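Hi V.,

Quick status before I head out on leave. The structure for the redesign project is tokenized and pasted below; the design run finished overnight.
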């Protein structure tokens, strides 16, 4: 089989410090579980009760065109599409709840 000889490596990533940004400025989250799913409901209820957990920031990879002035200095030229690497459900809920700021760390490499 093709994958028998396929070797992959996990490359380390470097993350920025935490920034608090308007979730509407981030890439759109990928489709997530329907809001009726228990895990989505539990997470939403937790965020309503406790707010956004700043110990679990959203991890974002952006490209040069997606930069914002507030964190402009962290960008490197990147021709890949911007994406949410971790936190799609949390971002979807933050947008639904119309939160003004969410904790975010950006991929630097």
């Amino acid at each position: 089989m093709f994958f028998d000889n396929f070797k992959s490596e996990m490359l380390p990533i470097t993350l920025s410090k935490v920034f608090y940004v308007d979730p509407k400025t981030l890439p759109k989250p990928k489709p997530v579980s329907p809001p009726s799913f228990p895990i989505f409901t539990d997470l939403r209820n937790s965020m309503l009760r406790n707010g956004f957990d700043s110990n679990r920031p959203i991890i974002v990879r952006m490209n040069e065109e997606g930069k914002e002035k507030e964190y402009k200095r962290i960008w490197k030229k990147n021709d890949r599409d911007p994406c949410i690497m971790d936190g799609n459900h949390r971002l979807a809920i933050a947008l639904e709840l119309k939160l003004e700021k969410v904790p975010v760390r950006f991929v630097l490499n």
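Above is the designed sequence. Residues 13-106 form a domain with the Conserved hypothetical protein from pyrococcus furiosus pfu- 392566-001, ParB domain fold (CATH 3.90.1530.10).

G. will cover questions while I'm gone.

Best,
W.
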